[in-house]
Design a protein that fits this description.
Helix 1 (4-16) packs antiparallel against helix 2, helix 5 (136-162) packs antiparallel against helix 7 (172-187) and helix 7 packs parallel to helix 8 (204-225). The protein folds into three domains: 4-56, no CATH class; 60-163; 170-301, Heat Shock Protein 90 (2-Layer Sandwich), CATH 3.30.565.10. The protein has helices at residues 4-16, 20-29, 34-39, 58-130, 136-162, 165-170, 172-187, 204-225, 262-274, and strands at residues 190-195, 229-237, 240-247, 278-283, 289-296. The protein is α+β, with helices and mostly antiparallel strands. The protein is elongated. The longest helix is centred in the N-terminal third of the chain and has 73 residues, at 58-130. Strands 1-2-3-5-4 form a five-stranded mixed β-sheet, covered by helices on one side. 62% of the residues lie in helices and 12% in strands.
């Protein structure tokens, strides 16, 4: 038990750290009444003096939680959008580098390898004329000539795929029609094309984008779809140019895109998005595949 002096000393020490309402209870009763404690929640700081701290405002804490939970998703969304912009800019730069490299390789094939093959075919023809008509060597030389001509056709096709000179010279409709005809001869897949001649005025960048998409779609059809025929359509209406490539092949399920041409689909989509267009890839097992790209019409300057 404490005597009067000890109680007074202890009481004054306690009152020094109490809020006014607590001090009033101590002054009147000599202790903090339970009703006061229940009405004003407080926390005891875990230090050596065990003094009573300021009361914790639970309402303020509850109000702060929704604010924190709202700010964090907004910050994450902003970072995600920033990363998307950076990745798109990187993809655009990679496509530009890829096109420059394709142009370089196509030039080397056309001006180097194809010229050498043509020279060999001509020299073999000269040798063939010097061989007696009844000699077996004559037919052998003739066979070599035909093989070299086939190799030249394949290399020419590759060169045109990498850098379509006709696209710059005659525009997208003519270049696309010529490519479909050549694709039929080289790959053995029947490709029909319907092109709107008014698209000839399309800007070079947009024309190259749609040309590359047609190449990719036809290549996928020949490799994976087991199609018998493919239809390519190029139209223009209401300020929009639309390219569609449809085949009658076996199609594929969405989860198979990553296994067969998945990267090509991503590449096609990225090219269209750079021009602020729309891209669709529709495929069902047994019902064929359709690739559709629409871009705003921008005339060549």
């Amino acid at each position: 038990m404490l005597d009067a002096n000890e109680r007074e000393s202890s009481g004054s020490g306690v009152k020094a750290v109490l809020r006014p309402s607590f001090r009033h209870s101590v002054a009147r009763n000599g202790f903090v009444h339970a009703s006061v404690l229940e009405s004003r929640p407080f926390a005891i700081e875990p230090d050596s003096k065990e003094r009573i701290s300021e009361p914790v405002n639970r309402d303020e804490q509850r109000q702060a939680l929704p604010e924190r939970s709202r700010v964090l998703p907004e910050r994450n969304q902003a970072l995600l959008e920033q990363h998307r912009v950076e990745i798109r800019a990187l993809n655009e730069q990679l496509i530009k580098v890829q096109e420059a490299e394709r142009m370089r390789i196509a030039g080397e094939l056309h001006d180097g390898v194809l010229q050498q093959i043509t020279s060999l075919v001509l020299r073999l023809g000269k040798v063939k004329r010097q061989v007696p008509p009844d000699s077996e060597a004559k037919s052998t030389i003739g066979g070599l000539q035909q093989e070299l001509i086939k190799v030249g056709m394949v290399l020419r096709h590759i060169s045109h795929e990498m850098h379509p000179a006709l696209l710059q010279e005659a525009g997208l409709p003519a270049a696309l029609s010529a490519y479909c005809e050549e694709f039929t001869k080289v790959r053995g897949l029947l490709v029909s094309s319907v092109t709107d001649q008014s698209v000839e005025e399309l800007s070079p960048g947009a024309a190259l984008c749609l040309y590359r998409i047609a190449q990719e779609a036809l290549g996928n059809a020949a490799k994976y779809s087991e199609a018998k025929k493919v239809e390519v359509r190029l139209t223009r209406s209401n300020g929009t140019v639309c390219l569609s490539v449809s085949d009658d092949g076996i199609g594929c399920a969405p989860d198979q895109l990553g296994k067969s041409g998945g990267l090509g689909v991503i590449n096609m989509r990225e090219r269209v998005l750079q021009l602020r267009g729309t891209f669709e890839f529709k495929s069902k097992q047994g019902r064929g595949t359709t690739v559709k790209a629409e871009v705003p019409f921008r005339p060549a300057s």
